[in-house]
Design a protein that fits this description.
Immunoglobulin-like; 4-stranded antiparallel sheet; 3 domains; elongated; Ig-like domain-containing protein; L,D-transpeptidase catalytic domain-like; 5-stranded mixed sheet; about 425 residues
Length: about 425
């Protein structure tokens, strides 16, 4: 028993010695694997053989940018004001890029300040619209920080639009202004005027002028040059025209200026001289306003044309003095009722000799506007909306600039102040 016990003991001891190197090898292998995982493998492209780790090259700056980008309004905000609410700024760095656009990709123009600390939009925002903001800033070490946010502008309860003349695609005379009448009185005219851009080709300065708080006209210093192409861009959507009342209009209108035609009525001589592109076409006998109802002096623009129309004195303060249901070849010169029109009821002898009207300028015509040989028909057929009619030598005052499309009766200095 004892011999068997003693002789077996070394075998057990020898077995333990043989197991020790295997365990050590296993532990060393695990350690090497750990070291390899932490240090990378040059052969696999994870290192450069110089001790570089996965975080980057030795000595590379891996700190976060110190620049902080702030966007107002906060991310996800709604019912945001269309003006004054959008602001982007940077602290401990400078803005390098700011992009703001709606979900359709329409960009909002803006500028980064000279010191890089802030970005502000050049224009108001549209109402009921979702916008995305992407802003990037760099700190003094050139490290970038970016911010992306979204917000939605308010849905207005009260809105306004502008009705305008001329219409898109029109061809007009050289005196035609762009005239816009607003559906609500405007108390913030600067913002509204800034949102309407009028340009001309060939280029010429075009300025706006307000008549009261609901009408805005644009014109150049002198009559348009023939052939000028004019573009009017309305960007009123989101403009706060008065407290709580926002514009709801975005569109582009284009029109063309035709040939130049300026006709001069001499009330004392009872004539009208028609000049087309600098050449006299014809001098026509006329009958202007009688001594009790003289015709306004001044530059007037044809704003409407009617082959036949009704004229009722009661609508312009003359009571029941006249009501003619079929006035031929009528062209409006003022809002207050001044027309240049055909006259079939007067004796032919008055034209060129006597002023007999209630303030209009009358030309000989035939009832029904059916005779193209009459002076009234001849002039009507050769006239455009926007043509100029100048009245002189009438014993009356000059027409007011806002009485019709007649802003040409203001000097350029008055117009632009």
């Amino acid at each position: 028993m004892n011999g068997q016990h003693i002789s077996g003991a070394p075998k057990r001891a020898a077995g333990r010695r043989r197991g020790t190197p295997g365990l050590l090898a296993l532990l060393l292998g695990a350690l090497l694997l750990l070291v390899s995982a932490c240090g990378g493998d040059d052969s696999a492209g994870g290192g450069d053989g110089k001790g570089k780790g996965a975080a980057g090259k030795a000595g590379e700056d891996t700190k976060a940018s110190a620049a902080v980008v702030t966007v107002a309004p906060k991310d996800g905000a709604d019912s945001v004001a269309t003006s004054g609410a959008l602001k982007v700024s940077a602290a401990q760095g400078k803005l390098t890029a700011v992009a703001v656009a709606d979900t359709k990709g329409n960009a909002v123009a803006g500028k980064i300040s000279a010191d890089g600390s802030a970005w502000t939009p050049d224009q108001h925002l549209a109402s009921a619209t979702k916008y995305k903001v992407h802003a990037v800033a760099k700190d003094t070490d050139g490290r970038e920080s970016a911010k992306d946010t979204t917000f939605t502008t308010l849905v207005p309860k009260n809105t306004f639009i502008g009705t305008y003349a001329p219409e898109d695609g029109d061809t007009v005379g050289v005196g035609m202004p762009v005239s816009i009448n607003f559906s609500r009185g405007i108390t913030n005219p600067q913002a509204v005027e800034k949102a309407i851009k009028v340009t001309a080709e060939p280029s010429v300065p075009v300025e706006g002028h307000w008549f009261g708080n609901d009408r805005l006209d644009f014109r150049p210093e002198k009559y348009w040059a023939p052939g000028t192409k004019v573009t009017v861009k309305f960007n009123l959507d989101g403009v706060e025209g008065r407290p709580g009342v926002y514009g709801k209009q975005t569109r582009t209108v284009k029109f063309t200026v035709g040939r130049s035609q300026v006709s001069t009525v001499d009330a004392a001589a009872h004539t009208m001289t028609v000049v087309r592109d600098g050449k006299t076409l014809r001098t026509i006998p006329i009958s202007a306003g009688a001594p009790a109802n003289t015709t306004y002096n001044g530059q007037m623009v044809i704003s409407e044309k009617y082959q036949v129309t009704r004229m009722n004195g009661a609508t312009v303060g003359f009571g029941g003095e006249y009501d003619i249901k079929d006035v031929p070849h009528a062209m409006r010169l003022s809002s207050s009722g001044t027309f240049l029109h055909g006259n079939y009821w007067g004796d032919p002898s008055v034209f060129g000799n006597t002023n007999t009207s209630h303030g209009c300028v009358g030309l000989r015509d035939a009832r029904g506007a059916g005779d193209p040989s009459t002076p009234a028909a001849w002039f009507y057929d050769r006239s455009l909306i926007g043509d100029v009619v100048i009245v002189k030598n009438s014993k009356d005052k000059q027409i007011q600039p806002d009485n019709g499309l007649n802003g040409w009766n203001m000097s350029w200095a008055e117009w632009t102040k």
